[in-house]
Amino acid sequence: MKLVLFGASGKTGTLLIQQALTAGHEVTAYVRRPESITLENKNLKVVVGELSDTTEITSAIAGADACISTLGGNSLKNHATEFMTGIQHIIAAMEKEKVSRFIYMSSVGAGESKYLMAQPVRFLIVNVMLRIPLADHTVNEQRIASSKLNWTIVRPGGLTDGPATAEIKHGSDKVMIKGNPSISRANVASFILKQLTDTTYTNKAVWLYE
User: Fold this and answer.
1) Starting at the edge strand that comes first in sequence, how are the strands of the sheet with 66-69 ordered?
2) Which of 20, 166, 175, 191 could be 25's S-S partner, Cβ–Cβ 3.0 to 4.6 Å?
3) φ, ψ dihedrals at 139, nearest 5°
4) Residue 72 is part of a domain; what is its CATH number?
């Protein structure tokens, strides 16, 4: 498949590139700085642009089979307005180019998933520590869900640098998640790629942890 990855230079994005190329996909990595992608592969194309550049975003998406976002804000104190506006631009470009499949990496605690977390963890994570990033993800989730796209929102627990394993839990049902769940970025990347062909969570938000 031809994939466009936003957030390609981040830790999860880097793993996604590696795993996608190993699986035989063609990857277009949309990044702000070309030097942020050091991997070289004949099936990897690097596109340099800002999230405000609608022309460049549209050009990158044209002809793709699916888009993936692992974008996120880099502040716990300030809303990531460029990131949020960028998601709007991506949605608009996908609808324009009729690229329907969109997989968005959010987080446990965004949207209604905050009610899956027991107190006092919910208060500490959702209302205090990650209040602003989770609020940003929640707005993006709402925009994606109201779009014309064929979407899946992936909500992992806290991200770690552990290895990929077969031991992961996932679902879209309303269950109580104990403690402060976590999952390796490698497992998240693997799960995201599986959603390209698995329709189980089409137009659904799925929680994910180890």
Assistant:
1) 44-48, 26-31, 2-6, 66-69, 101-105, 150-156, 204-209, 169-171
2) 20
3) -60, -45
4) 3.40.50.720
